[in-house]
């Protein structure tokens, strides 16, 4: 049962004492903690006021974080690490305050491809028989959806950089592109996979929780100078979102939140399309969408960030850097998170690393990211 944590008043968030924080989000089911935090007044309990700003794409989230138009945002884990490294765009020192959710994404293929796959034919054979080189979309070049798509393809002997064409499209545009025949499939967050099925333009072929059970997904992200200049505000913001994530553990609360997410100023699609996968659709194998789990979900594990660095190396985005561990340690604000969790009485893990086994049976624990990346048979032939 949900139990409200003790309030914590923010103090000294900046020189002027302003406590209004501008948060960006992309209209996806897993932006729910931000919507809940504002609707339930959890921000006020911790002495801050949230202004929520819907964004049309992850590129817009990135640009407004960098310009200072947003103080923090619901963001792809990989977006934060990509910006930190200046991969494909401007560089800035970034911070991950907490993980907002695990799982809750999926890969959808066009109806003809999904039907062929359901007949038992291997994916490699299905794609090879397509009348053109398959075009598969994700949401950001260094983002989570690109990495789930690449990993899934490679696990089945398909090179994601050579055997298919990968393109970037904002999630709300994917189903129209699939219906028009511009795309053959996509990897994105919900509810866009559920909407594709409801509209008959595609079918979910795998949930992300099958690719990496309990994978990290969206994070609460900001520039690192925001943390250094306004540490109390950053801590209060983290506590506010922890309250919201905890509230979402109750299925009845998720049912209420689905109505808020369906509003025109958020996702703007029917509640009935959002709710089943928000609750954890039993028809989809794999770990369902999780927001809290007694705090297990939210810790910013260094090993989670290091996994993205390993995949950037695997796919030729990242060459030899002196200390990948140091990069993850600088980005993931484990000390601030532990302070916020302690103030709320939330348990934290003993280690900054966790062990996972992905769909191909390969274990990951964050200890040797370069060796892990170089151990895959399918990878970019040269590092950038």
UniProtKB/TrEMBL annotation:
<keyword id="KW-0813">Transport</keyword>
<protein>
    <submittedName>
        <fullName>CmpA/NrtA family ABC transporter substrate-binding protein</fullName>
    </submittedName>
</protein>
<keyword id="KW-0472">Membrane</keyword>
<dbReference type="InterPro" id="IPR044527">
    <property type="entry name" value="NrtA/CpmA_ABC-bd_dom"/>
</dbReference>
<keyword id="KW-1003">Cell membrane</keyword>
<keyword id="KW-0732">Signal</keyword>
<keyword id="KW-0997">Cell inner membrane</keyword>
<dbReference type="Pfam" id="PF13379">
    <property type="entry name" value="NMT1_2"/>
</dbReference>
